[in-house]
Amino acid sequence: MLEQRSALLAVYKPGRIGVQEGPAPVAVHERRGRTLMQVSGWPGRFHLLCANLQMLLACRMPGDGLTAVSQGPRSVFRVGPERLWLAAPSDDPVLRAIDAASLGDDGIVSEIGASRTVVRVAGTGARSLLNRGLPVDLDAIVFPVDAFAQSVIQRIPVLVHHAPVSGDGAYDVYVPRDYAVSFWQWLTDAAASLGCETREPE
Predict the structure, then answer these.
(1) Is 135 found in the same domain as 80?
(2) Neighbours of 154 (CB within 10 A)
(3) Long-range contacts of 43-51 (CB under 8 A, 24+ apart)
(4) What is the pLDDT of residues 71-102, one digit of tens each?
(5) 41: domain CATH number?
(6) Which structural domain range is residue 28 located in?
(7) What are phi and psi of 127, to 5 degrees?
(8) What is the pTM of this model?
(9) CATH of the domain at 158
(10) 3 pLDDT above the threshold of 70
């Protein structure tokens, strides 16, 4: 299978922004080794699709459009009344096995990883940085680990997920590929006054 070319390739430059010494309060990097699958169901039969996926993925399905369900490096988002996103490493064998045959007539499977760029924003200043453009309260009390929101940053549609990782807060931002460069330029410009480290993609 051909490797997807990063939409950020021309503008991605690892290094430091606005800080020269000591640890930077924000670290950003592109998550290139991810895949994203959309599974859509039918009104009145969505519960059957969820039951099937629950067996295939060996984890419960999200009950609302506010909280993801994460299991290791895999996360499931309910992004619509009868629509789920499944995010995982690109070599995840379980996700690769999910197709129309495994779901029968209860679901439609679409690989949409090529349509999104995923950027991780982490560190003690991550919340402050994102809230310079995101109209969502990211305070951990109201936006705990695995919370997610579909919103906009600088008029760019995004899905922001409070990632379940140890240490300082980390957020994965799913951005439409066509807007990836604009988002990246906003992010790095906004991070300059805080101090930011751009890390190698993963």
Answers:
(1) no
(2) 15
(3) 43/81, 43/82, 45/106, 46/81, 46/82, 48/106, 49/82, 49/103, 49/106, 49/107, 50/84
(4) 999 999 999 999 999 999 999 998 888 877 78
(5) 3.30.70.1520
(6) 24-32+115-198
(7) -65, -45
(8) 0.95
(9) 3.30.1360.120
(10) no
